Amino acid sequence: MEGMEQWSHEAKQWLQRGIEYAQQIPPNQLYAAAAVLLITTLLLVIVRLFKRTKSNTIMLTGLTGSGKTVLFYQLRDGSSHQGTVTSMEPNEGTFILHSESSKKGKTKPVHLVDVPGHSRLRPKLDEFLPQAAGIVFVVDALEFLPNLRAVSEYLYDILTKASVVKRKVPVLICCNKTDKVTAHTKDFIRKQLEKEIEKLRASRSGISEADVANEFTLGVHGEVFSFSHCSNKVSIAESSGLTGDISQLEQFIREHVEP
Ligand SMILES: Nc1nc2c(ncn2[C@@H]2O[C@H](COP(=O)(O)OP(=O)(O)OP(=O)(O)O)[C@@H](O)[C@H]2O)c(=O)[nH]1
Ligand SMILES: [Mg+2]
Q: 149-193: per-residue pLDDT in tens?
């Protein structure tokens, strides 16, 4: 009992000292301290809210036949569902990546949208782009050269969209079908794409302004185009949807959809 009284007495003394100390501080300084505390708390709350609403949507885009749907199933089920046909509707799903399904604890489901490459269905892209956390642009590394112009035009369109440029949506150029020895390497593909986009850039900037459908111009004026000039991050990877060699793709998804 005596110990208790002693303790409460001491506590009161300390409190008294504290109050005296606080009274010595000029009120201005106290207000400033309170304001700083308030602002920090507010900032933390905002950051928290912002983080929670972060998108988990990853888009699979690219020409028809590049292998998007095979990649979609590979990411979801870990198998290729061979014999897919040209998709007529976007393929959509929210799931835990197959490679992470056995992992306990921190995994966040990914909302994956596979937008068909058929030109008639490409406007569907605009429906999902405003919420995209990342774009995977799938390129057929086997039939690459015959499609170079078409691939570059589609990529150019994506890289100049307002919803991509303004929000700096990261883009992964995924060179697919590397299971075949005749597949081109990602370095070769990157160089060819940069060259072709440079040509597109020159021809499109010649058109009168009213005809330009693209919302932003690409690259640095007066310099030969390079993906490093894009305001958003553009990286390049290799994959094979058929054999399930998709680790670089999964890494990109994880980087932009954090658990
Ligand atoms: N060798 C090889 N073939 C592949 C690979 N991925 C897909 N293919 C083949 O490429 C063809 C097209 O694959 P899809 O996944 O249907 O292509 P897509 O991009 O969804 O095409 P659209 O739906 O028309 O836009 C199929 O015949 C697949 O078997 C791969 O990694 N390696
Ligand atoms: Mg498809």
A: 999 999 999 999 999 999 999 999 999 999 999 999 999 999 999
pLDDT tens digits, residue range 233-255?
A: 999 999 999 999 999 999 999 99
Domains, the chain, with CATH or none: 1-50 (no CATH), 57-256 (3.40.50.300)
Give Cβ neighbours of residue 171 (< 8 Å, ≥ 6 apart).
Answer: 134, 135, 136, 137, 158, 159, 164, 230, 232, 233, 234, 235
Q: Which atom of ligand 1 is nearest to the CA of 63?
A: 25
8 lines ligand 1 (CB under 6 A): no
* pTM, rounded to two decimals: 0.79
Does 116 contact ligand 1 (Cβ within 6 A)?
yes
